[in-house]
Structure formats: structure tokens, C-alpha cells
């Protein structure tokens, strides 16, 4: 069962998305701020990180940059989740180290296809 870490400070978004992912067969770990997300990545080594970009303590941009600079964490794929849907936000997320980008509200089939692609479960 693939392990996904969801770093999301909004309780409603966190609960909704974690339940939907669990129903699809993922083990879901939760963090509510950027530093907790990094700490949980080190402790649990998830297969993938779903990262809200607007977080307390350390925002998603900082988390992605730190993780990609850390040899022990840089292999973990990161999908940025953000309500920021401006044209340059996707590029900014990719430059910070995210492997993909998705907008909120989350379209679950679209997000699942990105997760499965990054986990190597589909072509």
C-alpha cells in the first residue's frame, strides 16, 4: 500500500482528501505545517508528498526546496496543491522542487492520475 503524506493546514481539506485517498488504497499520513511535513518525511519516508503551498511555520515553497536539497529526501516526489492558479504559480512550484502541480479545489481523478504516474503505477 503506497504511503502518501498530505501536508495541509485546512482541516476540512485535509479530512476530505485523506478519506478519499484511503478509499483508493493509499496509507495517508497527515501534517498541518511545513516543518511537521519535513519531520514526518524524515521519520516515515512516504512514497509521495502532497504539499499545500500556503502553510504555517514553513510554506510549501520552502519545504519543497529543503527536501530537494536533502539527499535523504530528494527522491520523494512532491505534488504542489494550491489555490494559486496564476500562470506562473505552476512554474514557481516546479522551480521550488515540486514534481507536479495541482489546483484546489482538488479534482480527484486528475490528482489520482498524477499520483499514479509519479509512483510509476501507470505509463
UniProtKB/TrEMBL annotation:
Write down the InterPro entries for this protein, in alphabetical order: CheY-like_superfamily, Sig_transdc_resp-reg_receiver
Coiled-coil residues are none
Return the Gene3D superfamilies for the record: 3.40.50.2300
Q: Does the keyword Phosphoprotein apply?
A: yes
Q: Where is the Response regulatory domain?
A: 3-119
Q: Which Pfam families match?
A: Response_reg (PF00072)
Q: Which residues carry this modification: 4-aspartylphosphate?
A: 52
Give the signal sequence positions. none
GO BP of this protein: phosphorelay signal transduction system
Keywords on record? Phosphoprotein
Q: Which PANTHER family does the record cross-reference, listed alphabetically? A: HISTIDINE KINASE, HYBRID SIGNAL TRANSDUCTION HISTIDINE KINASE J
User: How is this protein named in the record?
Assistant: CheY-like chemotaxis protein
Q: Which organism is it from?
A: Zhongshania antarctica
Amino acid at each position: 500500500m503506497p504511503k502518501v503524506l498530505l501536508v495541509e493546514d485546512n482541516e476540512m481539506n485535509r479530512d476530505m482528501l485523506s478519506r478519499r485517498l484511503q478509499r483508493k488504497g493509499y496509507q495517508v499520513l497527515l501534517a498541518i505545517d511545513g516543518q511537521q511535513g519535513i519531520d514526518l518525511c524524515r521519520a516515515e519516508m512516504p512514497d509521495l508528498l502532497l504539499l499545500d503551498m500556503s502553510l504555517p511555520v514553513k510554506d510549501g515553497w520552502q519545504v519543497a526546496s529543503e527536501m530537494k536539497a536533502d539527499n535523504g529526501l530528494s527522491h520523494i516526489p512532491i505534488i504542489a496543491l494550491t489555490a494559486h492558479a496564476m500562470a506562473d504559480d505552476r512554474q514557481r512550484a516546479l522551480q521550488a522542487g515540486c514534481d507536479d502541480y495541482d489546483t484546489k479545489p482538488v479534482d480527484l481523478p486528475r490528482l489520482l492520475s498524477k499520483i499514479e504516474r509519479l509512483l510509476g503505477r501507470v505509463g
